[in-house]
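Most newcomers find our protein records easier to grasp once they have seen one. Each record describes a single protein and holds just a pair of labelled lines. A learned vocabulary of local backbone shapes supplies the integers on the structure line. Nothing more is needed to start thinking about how sequence determines fold. The record below serves as our worked example for the rest of this section.
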Amino acid sequence: MVQKPIEKQSEVPSPCVRNCCLDDKDVCVGCLRSIDEIVGWGSKSNQEKLTILARCESRKEARSK
């Protein structure tokens, strides 16, 4: 049996919720990623993706205040 590399086995899923619309700061109102984060998602490492998700969470908290 051939195993996939560890990084591929635990791939960080996209936070996309199919509500794609950018605000005036080019941040998606659905997933809260910037346009650059969305476009580059597929080429990012898992660590980079986790960093992006943390930024999304910060944006979510900032919007709820």
